Known about the structure:
mainly alpha, 1 helix
Amino acid sequence: MVPLLLVLLLAIILFGIGFAVKVLWWIALAVLVLWLIGFLARGTTAGGGRGRWYRW
């Protein structure tokens, strides 16, 4: 009975980790899209050149 419970616990843990990793991939993809939009739509400077793509 104990080995069966350990296998079920391992399966639940691995499923949870897999779900979390999948969610993190979707978040990373959304951040990448937002970064690309910001990179492509950045404003110009007073001299007519492109501004910095970062804020620091």
